[in-house]
UniProtKB/TrEMBL annotation:
Catalyzes the ATP-dependent amidation of deamido-NAD to form NAD. Uses L-glutamine as a nitrogen source. One of its GO terms (molecular function) is NAD+ synthase (glutamine-hydrolyzing) activity. NCBIfam families: nadE, PRK13981.1. Pfam families: CN_hydrolase, NAD_synthase. It comes from Mesorhizobium onobrychidis. Keywords: ATP-binding, Ligase, NAD, Nucleotide-binding. The gene is nadE. Transmembrane segments: none annotated. This is Glutamine-dependent NAD(+) synthetase. Signal peptide: none annotated.
């Protein structure tokens, strides 16, 4: 009930949910369900994530007046729900006000909106582009009095930057900070978030609750892993990563806590009850991010099933495993498309992989289309040497067949290029690059191997696929090959993957110079060649399907290089 008498116990539910961008009615329905669930668990208040009603990030959708109106209406409706005497709510929504369009929250209780708060620090780096569509909120936005407890509500980036928003809230009397976030995954991000929040707790002396969104949104993966750091700077609770959940946490007033952290005599808040989930290790986390990203992309875009070319190589095998884990065996169709260079081993490995995963497996030879193209082009190509042109026809025949299956049966094509290949353009445009979504686009080849090995000995929570050796070890052990000509291996055209990946990580992830990379022990000619290949493949990447972001520098959202570019560090 709405009552401003200070209580000594506060039950705060954190709704770590998977909204869909643009589905305002669906997101409101989800929020209502979560609030009812939290009410049953005895919550006083439910904290939702950043821009929950819109789904995060809504990008240019917030430039549409009709979208803003739908969000405003949903926020008003949800606020009215709180007249039932159940939990109050803090929920993110875009709001258009005289001062502009804001990335906001509404705070509602007792059927009314008690307060609105606007994000002050709009992130505009990496994958974020918020200054483009939002206006920053004013500097002074104090805490909100909720049933006698003063709650501060900075929004996501507000606690990341150098602006002293948490400290200002503490100085204005806030007792706990509740932070709605849309914080995308990259490897190791959970630790980074903990450090950011600990730094703020040191500055402001208040406990901070960090509620993060869940789910895939195009390239971005929101991994949840919501948590709180108490005023003693230790982890007060930790929610699970990659899972939708509503957890109620109990907070108690404690004079000892306040005295310890600020030396003053006022009361502080201590978490006495909350989850303490284990955060998965790196291979598991990356694998689950890829799985969640593929699942949400396929489901949120309304595809019933997916199709991919299964070659007997590692990239298509891990994509098949991810598809079965994300969607179930009955939703994947794997197609082997042999040509004259396809080895017996590849045919066997592809079949073994499909059998281990339990998915549908078709063999569609491509002799006729490839020979047909070659025949059609004979006259035109007379006197020229055979080479990549003819090789690429194989890839294009495969890509065309996959797109035909997609058109006929409505299955989305899963495309399988890893980050090493995408970096140097080792993939055929309108061939194996065909496809709607790429679950391994941001994994270097050596990481693909590590994840494949990991998956053969683990089944991640929520996976729909079987246990055991789902990626036959022969696929992991053999030399990678595109099999576009006799006895071809990737290493005919590229440096060995451990070398290539290290150089690429230096160039892409760390923006290192050629001299610095050479100083790590690499051959200068190799480094300059890789740098050149990286630059000239930009045109391909611009035409590539989106894929799951795993690193701090994925292609597309984070790393944005010009296509036309004559700069070469290596001369
Ligand atoms: N700056 C630019 N802006 C716009 N377009 C540009 C361009 N530069 C080249 N192009 C165009 O791109 C074409 C070359 O690109 P593309 O046709 O993709 O062909 P390309 O890159 O020459 O060959 C594909 C490469 O991928 C390798 N690969 C590896 C693994 C698997 C597979 C597979 O297919 O299964 C292939 C294959 O061995 C080969 O090295 C040029 O003919 C030109 O039309
Ligand atoms: N014979 C084939 N049948 C079906 N699909 C194929 C075939 N050859 C290539 N493809 C498709 O083209 C993609 C690109 O080939 P590529 O050689 O890069 O990957 P891979 O064969 O899965 O792995 P690796 O590079 O380790 O051999 C494959 O992942 C697959 O989707
Ligand atoms: N949505 C945001 O403001 C996110 C910003 C923050 N730096 C993060 O990655 O979590």
């Amino acid at each position: 009930m709405t009552d401003n008498t200070a209580s000594d116990i506060l039950r705060i539910a954190v709704a770590q949910l998977n909204p869909t961008v643009g589905d305002v009615a669906g997101n409101l329905a989800k929020a209502r369900e979560a609030r009812a669930d939290a009410a049953r668990q005895g919550a006083d208040i439910v904290l939702f994530t950043e821009l929950f009603l819109a789904g995060y990030p809504p990008e240019d959708l917030v430039l549409k007046p009709a979208f803003l109106k739908a969000c405003e209406r949903a926020a008003q409706d949800f606020a009215r729900d709180t007249a039932d005497g159940g939990p109050g709510v803090i929920i993110g929504t875009p709001l258009k006000r005289k001062s502009g369009t804001h990335n906001s929250i509404i705070f509602a209780d007792g059927g009314k909106i008690l307060a609105e708060r606007y994000k002050l620090d709009l992130p505009n780096y990496g994958e974020f582009d918020e200054k483009r569509v939002f206006q920053a909120g004013p500097e002074m936005q104090g805490p909100v009095n909720f049933r006698g407890v003063r709650l501060g509500i900075p929004i996501c980036e507000d606690i990341w930057g150098d602006v002293a928003i948490c400290e200002t809230l503490a100085e204005s009397g806030a007792e706990i900070l509740l932070v709605p976030n849309g914080s995308p995954y990259y490897r190791g991000k959970v630790d980074v978030r903990h450090q950011v929040v600990i730094r703020q707790v040191i500055e402001c002396g208040l406990p901070i609750i960090y509620a993060n969104q869940l789910g895939g949104q195009d390239e971005l993966i929101f991994d949840g892993a919501s948590f709180a750091i108490g005023s003693d700077k230790t982890l007060a609770f930790q929610m699970s990563q990659f899972e939708e959940t509503v957890n109620v946490t109990t907070w108690k007033r404690s004079r000892a806590a306040a005295g310890a952290q600020s030396g003053n005599n006022s009361d502080g808040w201590v978490c006495s009850e909350g989850p303490m989930s284990k955060i998965p290790e790196k291979e598991e986390a990356d694998y689950r991010a890829c799985m969640l990203g593929l699942r949400d992309y396929v489901n949120k875009n309304g595809f019933k099933n997916v199709v991919l070319g299964l070659s007997g190589g590692i990239d298509s095998a891990i994509c098949a495993a991810l598809a079965v884990d994300a969607l179930g065996e009955e939703r994947l169709r794997a197609v082997m498309m042999p040509y004259r260079y396809t080895s017996k081993d590849s045919l066997k490995d592809a079949e073994d992989c499909a059998r281990a995963l339990g998915c549908r497996y078709d063999i569609v030879p491509i002799f006729e289309p490839v020979e047909g193209f070659l025949h059609t082009l004979t006259q035109l190509f007379e006197g020229t040497k055979e080479g990549i042109t003819e090789e690429n026809l194989q890839s294009r025949a495969r890509g065309t067949i996959l797109m035909a299956i997609s058109n006929k049966f409505g299955s989305m094509v899963v495309t399988t290029g890893n980050k090493s290949e995408m970096s140097v353009g080792y993939a055929t445009l309108y061939g194996d690059m065909n496809g709607g979504f790429n679950p391994i686009k941001d994994l270097y080849k050596m990481q693909v191997y590590a994840l494949a090995r990991w998956r053969n000995t683990h089944v991640p929570p929520g996976a729909l696929g079987p246990s055991g050796e789902v990626i036959p070890n022969n696929i992991i052990d053999k030399a990678p090959s595109a099999e576009l000509r006799e006895n071809q291996t990737d290493q005919d055209s590229l440096p060995p993957y451990p070398v290539l990946d290290d150089i690429l990580e230096c160039l892409v992830e760390n923006e290192m110079g050629v001299d610095e990379i050479v100083a790590r022990g690499h051959d200068r000619a190799t480094v300059t060649r890789v740098e050149h290949l990286l630059y000239i493949a930009e045109y391909k990447r611009r035409q590539a399907a989106p894929g799951v972001k795993i690193t701090k520098k994925n292609f597309g959202r984070d790393r944005r290089y010009p296509i036309t570019n004559r700069f070469r560090d290596g001369g």
